[in-house]
């Protein structure tokens, strides 16, 4: 059972999300918060696997709440899935930079939403390469140095930036998925990235991946 914490300042949206999530046999809502400042205490109380985080809230927004959560629960924190109205929202980009595992549009269909929760709960990142590329473009490129990567690590990073899964990367390179996981783990370690999403952002901001 995947436990979900819903964070949104609008009660109607929280109710709608709860209805969608609780209708699934493998998902359950363990708590709700109306503001980012309530997240850390609720996470400690309910131990969710995934936090659905509204990005724009009046007192503490999703960026600050994500940053505070990851600092307060450094050991195995829940995955943060940002929920937003606009995919080109600068708030979304900043939330991804500080550690969110992906984002989801509020207009997403119910089946897309529950699948997104399952994806991040399984440890994968929910990437939208085009949106991340467009957002990264606004922040310029080449200003941040990329550590030395092996040829294979560099190849894996380029394919991750295209949005390929580990299985798809394995097929592309003609190697096993465990080999891909090893190379990706090395990439994350060298970049100091928490997950695939942060690795892709670093790749774009350094100019390593062409826009």
Automatic annotation (TrEMBL):
SMART domains: HTH_LUXR, REC. The modification 4-aspartylphosphate is found at residue 54. Residues 142-207 form the HTH luxR-type domain. GO terms for biological process: phosphorelay signal transduction system; regulation of DNA-templated transcription. One of its GO terms (molecular function) is DNA binding. Residues 3-121 form the Response regulatory domain. This is DNA-binding NarL/FixJ family response regulator. It comes from Allostreptomyces psammosilenae.
